Amino acid sequence: MKIESIATKTFTDQKPGTSGLRKKVTAFRQPHYLENFVQAVFDVRPDLQGGTLVLGGDGRFYNREAIGIILRMAQANGVGHVIVGQGGILSTPAASCLIRKYRTQGGLILSASHNPGGPDADFGIKFNMPNGGPAPESVTEAIYQRTLELEHYRICPPSGINIDHLGEHTLEGMKLTVVDPVADYAELMQSLFDFKAMRTLLASGLFSMRFDAMHAVTGPYALRILEDLLGAPEGTVMRAEPLADFGGVHPDPNLVYAADLVAVLNRPNGPDFGAASDGDGDRNMILGSRFFVTPSDSLAIMAANAHLLPGYRQGIAGVARSMPTSCAADRVAEALGIACHETPTGWKFFGNLLDAGAITLCGEESFGTGSDHVREKDGLWAVLFWLNLLAVRRQSVAEIVKEHWQRFGRNYYTRHDYEDVDSDAAGDLMQTLRARLPELIGQSFGPFTVTAADDFAYTDPVDASVSTGQGLRILFEEGARLIFRLSGTGTSGATLRLYVERYESDPGCLLEDPQSALRPLLELAESLAQIQHYTQRSQPDVIT
Ligand code: G16
């Protein structure tokens, strides 16, 4: 076997963020850039030598080229077996499913998630561990350190293997299996949910749904599961064909970027249930007829109802949410007598808790929910969870949510994003506010009295690792919170996220518009942090 050792130069910007290395396609296409990062992964994960690697991505621009390069590098680095999705396609949760099912030594997932695709848009790569979850900070840091010192990478010449052909291929020194990207994942979903009940609901003539795949990776998954296996009528899945540039749409399932779906659900006599997923299929948005379910509420409602679904009939061990996610799930956990863990933003922080059996469900405000079935958040899983729930409870989405608020109270919640802000200005805002935090404690601002203010730090209860600098929190009496964070997933400038929450238990005050219910806190956030001054924006780019 011919192995070439290619001289590379050091790149200083390959530090993974919230979820792997995300950069512009133009950065990844610089000579040796992708190769440098991939070689660092092989160097810090020696188990891959002679081991099995799962490989796939969300089909965005540069996916196929990158898969070709990684296959040649895997061969040169002595990987024994690569399992690749047909055409290089794997949704992020499906990749996690394959890593776990075939007990592999890990996986490389190519995606910039909800960020746009195309030659001038975004790309990304991350390594997932043998448990199927994103590498923890200790591993991403080791990969980063290795990228800084690498001088050569190893690569074989192109093999001419066609990754569109299903089945086993033998390359010199390495086995390659091209798998149907959907089959194993669909089988896992059938083990968790009551497909018969969902089929009955969809065939009843009393219910209809729409799923927006946003021209991203979930198209083939949704077509197979919703239309083929569950019998939903053709056309239920909209924008089903995965495209390298996502058809020019921003594949982020929220009220702004999935506006077409929202419009369908807002029509008189529109569908009863609507859902969307993102570029790589791990995020979800849940809608009812003229009704939006916040991801934080969705997690709480899942926790309160999990026992109604086959995969969770025995109850849930515990629940976890990221720190900026609303505290709605905490109230359910308390009622169920189970623990609710608060972790930093980033799915990787749930991994240890899931592996230890401390939690069954977890979720984030950033449109991510999941369970112990894989080690990634899972968009279609969340959609099936809700569909199964609707089939069991035979109520509308809005009725289920409103009943939940009546029982547990409502955590009014919103997130305001200021995108592509000047990085220095965003840093200054955070630094100035951080310095003011100690003096805020005990102060009252109108009806709000500050009980605590800090820069969130987390000690993992399983391995005692510590993560600091995870977001500025200002906590008020009676469950109100203001949180400021800089995103770790953007690819240009800085994105400031402001998260605002207030708890309401008065049964007569549960149906207000969140933006008005939270207005006084939003004004307080502006006066404390001078957002307009630092960002030079009069309003956020995205409100969810
Ligand atoms: C990633 C992470 C999530 C995180 C989200 C937003 O999601 O996996 O855990 O909540 O980014 O992170 P940030 O606020 O730092 O931008 P995805 O869907 O992009 O992989």
From TrEMBL:
It is an enzyme of class 5 (isomerase). GO terms for molecular function: magnesium ion binding; phosphoglucomutase activity. Keywords: Isomerase, Magnesium, Metal-binding, Phosphoprotein. One of its GO terms (biological process) is carbohydrate metabolic process. Residues 14-152, 184-287, 296-408 form the Alpha-D-phosphohexomutase alpha/beta/alpha domain. InterPro entries: A-D-PHexomutase_a/b/a-I (IPR005844), A-D-PHexomutase_a/b/a-I/II/III (IPR016055), A-D-PHexomutase_a/b/a-II (IPR005845), A-D-PHexomutase_a/b/a-III (IPR005846), A-D-PHexomutase_C_sf (IPR036900), A-D-PHexomutase_CS (IPR016066), Alpha-D-phosphohexomutase_SF (IPR005841), PGM (IPR045244). The keyword Metal-binding applies. It catalyses: alpha-D-glucose 1-phosphate = alpha-D-glucose 6-phosphate. The keyword Metal-binding applies. Pfam families: PGM1_C_vert_fung (PF24947), PGM_PMM_I (PF02878), PGM_PMM_II (PF02879), PGM_PMM_III (PF02880). Belongs to the phosphohexose mutase family. This is phosphoglucomutase (alpha-D-glucose-1,6-bisphosphate-dependent). It comes from Ectothiorhodosinus mongolicus. The lineage of its organism: Bacteria, Pseudomonadati, Pseudomonadota, Gammaproteobacteria, Chromatiales.
